Automatic annotation (TrEMBL):
Residues 83-215 form the GST C-terminal domain. GO terms for biological process: glutathione metabolic process. GO terms for molecular function: glutathione transferase activity. This is Glutathione S-transferase GstB. Residues 1-78 form the GST N-terminal domain. Keywords: Transferase. It is an enzyme of class 2 (transferase). The gene is gstB_3.
Length: 221
């Protein structure tokens, strides 16, 4: 059985978890306090980051590379379209969320509100929190624009792009930092993603000291 070293609210870990679950690959989850720099963990990934996946006799790091490996090794059900142009668009949107969205929103909200406390790094920086709360509005509006032109974020079928976005937004939703009333299109899109069997284990996550809001696991939120 595969084994994933992860942190529950890490969007990068969640993206890999969603890919594994969608492809029905059984996987043991091992919560890893990577910030403690455990020597055994550093041997698995000298970069000292999660996720780290053990599968097929290999130890893998970097979420984008892991998801590409899973797509090539376990192609069904597919999370990447067949055409070159469509695959580019999926990768572009995955990059948007894992880079721009993370730097402007996730790191400033989940990072400040949750990670600092868990890692004992002090109190949240109020300016970062305000910046993240302001920036998420822009990103939700961009998602709404995409969904006005497409059924899913990258096209007419669900792809890894949707899982990347949902991984970030679900982590933010855990701490009630998403205004779902800002866009009906985005809310409907998230409800569709949230109702998939692949999402069940994510909705069961619990972070000690941070109980999820009542709507978090509600499929009819």
């Amino acid at each position: 059985m595969a084994k994933l070293f992860h942190v529950p609210l890490s969007p990068y870990c969640r993206k890999v978890r969603l890919s594994l679950a969608e492809k029905r690959i059984e996987c043991e989850l091992v919560e890893e306090r990577y910030w403690e720099q455990d020597p055994d963990f550093l041997r698995r990934n000298p970069a000292g980051k999660v996720p780290v996946l053990r599968i097929d006799g290999k130890t893998m790091s970097e979420s984008a590379a892991i998801c590409e490996y899973l797509e090539e090794k376990y192609p069904e059900p597919s999370l990447m379209p067949k055409s070159t142009d469509a695959r580019y668009e999926v990768r572009r949107i995955v990059g948007w969320f894992d880079d721009k969205f993370h730097n402007e929103v996730t790191s400033k909200l989940v990072g400040e509100r949750v990670n600092k406390k868990v890692m004992k790094l002090g109190f949240p920086d109020s300016r970062n929190v305000k910046d993240g709360a302001r920036a998420i509005k822009y990103h939700l509006d961009y998602m709404a624009w995409l969904l006005d032109h497409r059924r899913w974020l990258a096209g007419d079928v669900m792809t890894l792009a949707d899982f990347a976005a949902a991984a970030h937004l679900s982590a933010l939703d855990y701490i009630s930092d998403v205004d779902w009333n800002r866009s009906e299109a985005v809310k409907d899109w998230y409800a569709k993603i949230k109702s998939r069997p692949a999402f069940r284990s994510i909705l069961a996550d619990q972070v000690p000291g941070f109980p999820p809001p009542a709507h978090y696991a509600d499929l009819d939120f």
